[in-house]
Amino acid sequence: MKIAILGSGNVATHLSKALKAIGEDVVQVYSPNLEHAKLLADELQASSVNHLEQVIGDADFYVVCVKDDAIATVATGLKDVDGLVVHTSGTTDLETLSSTLKNTGVFYPLQTFSKHKEISFNNIPLCLEANSEANFEILNLLANKLSNQVYQLDGEKRKVLHLAAVFACNFTNHLYTLANQLLEKNNLDFEIIRPLIAETADKVMVNLPENVQTGPAVRKDEITINKHLSMLADLPELQEIYQTLSSSIKLTY
Amino acid sequence: MKIAILGSGNVATHLSKALKAIGEDVVQVYSPNLEHAKLLADELQASSVNHLEQVIGDADFYVVCVKDDAIATVATGLKDVDGLVVHTSGTTDLETLSSTLKNTGVFYPLQTFSKHKEISFNNIPLCLEANSEANFEILNLLANKLSNQVYQLDGEKRKVLHLAAVFACNFTNHLYTLANQLLEKNNLDFEIIRPLIAETADKVMVNLPENVQTGPAVRKDEITINKHLSMLADLPELQEIYQTLSSSIKLTY
């Protein structure tokens, strides 16, 4: 397939490289910032453009990997291309892609991408939706070449999944940051807590999290909880988070 | 070293097996519940007892792995043994071990243990404290045989570490549970989110978490945040957690 990538951020970078790696023909990268477009295009041996009217009209597949609030504008800029146009957003409706487009879909990789960390697409769940059965089959075929976890999800389910991902990924990483704030304040290195973080994630690879909850709140150990709350007296923000999550734990299990 | 284990829970089980595996002589397991003591003792080919006065008096090393609020009682029950008596608690002062004991210490493994999941002690940070330089050296020698991450930490730092661990492990696992609640409610399988959880933890093995935060709150994407809050309208507990953590993220980065 002849593919144009619209965007140059983390998703654009990782996805375009993965598409090239399975032998697809990534021919062009668009970004409003030409330097950004060129940087990625050079890695892909593709051309780079920074105006939507310069995007080729005869690609088979257009992948819109831009910020959610720019998807509509970019898709409208593609005018009436015949190729299949997909966005990669968890929170955006399929219908946000311009109504003048004939072939549309969603290709949402459920993963957290960082610029400087390689990641294999094999284990990345790909969540698909399309405006026709035929277009879905095109996406499904492609997705199965990239990953062994492919799901067909409508917009409502995709949005729930995105919300769940905020809890399981974004909020979790923030808890790591708060833990590190406590460590740094006491001249302890983050290294000391890394094995615990790794094992906490590893435990739920084979268990459901509700079956492996540990800690003072699930034991209803009020003595330790109160000690911790008083240790956080000068950090009211952390104290509030401690209180909120501990109350939730006590109610949940 | 001739070792007696006081306790039969997760820490007692994992630690006693690790001690046996490096060639130490684990001779006895005490638990107020004889059946529990026997279950672990059989695995270790040790004897089992359920009264503190039955605990052997001539062990070199007594490992008290009982609930925090039972440590004082068990230590007092050991009366005036000469061997080195340690507890394994993150939150308990060294001084909680009876003042009649001559040789005392803390041997705190910073890890989350589950009954049915094997774990190698190699990468478990062991946090040590002792009531004398000589006793510290005994602990240090033993700890270095078990793990390549050994730290000398006083009670204050150990308590901070334990508190940080609640954020990085217990609260994190609870966020996984909340994510799964959202998924289950919408007939989505937890499997779909496992790769994201694994990668979120993996990212901070080489980065500091404050450098890899992603998601709507750190982007100050109020449109997505408000969509998510309205999706949680019928789950006020999750809505509060979403709000509290998003506010904290917006203030932190």
From TrEMBL, chains A, B:
Residues 2-80 form the Pyrroline-5-carboxylate reductase catalytic N-terminal domain. Residues 124-248 form the DUF2520 domain. InterPro entries: 6-PGluconate_DH-like_C_sf, DUF2520, NAD(P)-bd_dom_sf, P5C_Rdtase_cat_N, TM1727-like_C_sf. Pfam families: DUF2520, F420_oxidored. This is DUF2520 domain-containing protein. It comes from Pedobacter paludis.
